[in-house]
Amino acid sequence: AWSSLALAATGMAILTLHDHNRLDVLVGFAAVGAGVAAFWMHAALTSWAARLDGAGVAVVTAALAARAWSQRVPAEPALVVAAMLIGLGIAIGTPALNGISLVFGTAAVAGIIAGCRGVSTRPLAAAALLMAAGGLLWWLGRSEGPWCRPDGFIVHAVWHMMAAAALATGWMQLRRCSA
What pLDDT does 11 receive? Predict the structure, then answer.
């Protein structure tokens, strides 16, 4: 459960480093909320906490898409709509689909950010790889997954760290965006 707070810490960093952009504040608060909701979900292990966890991730995904779009990034509108719909799918989907949906949502957001001038593709590719590898670890380490070991090394905790690092990297690249 404690590893979930990596996302909250990333949100706090965004709130500290933002350039007075209201959507950055939204992304920061969404990440803090998603991290706290994920912590609560892992600590409480209730179905409503799982929904809250999914909703937090959905808000982060939608906030990043809105932030990119606000930069007038020359993105395909389909990518923006896909990111927001995938975020919605996370919020209303079952917890088993959250990790997979998050990977696709992140890919859509990465596609939006990649449309920026001034953005280096290497860190963006690194963030996408972190999310892909983290998504795989999430799948393997989920409840009833083949690597789920509540009393041993928790693969799911690595997923939390990778997702937080990917969010930080993607957000930093988005700040460099010049439409």
Answer: 93
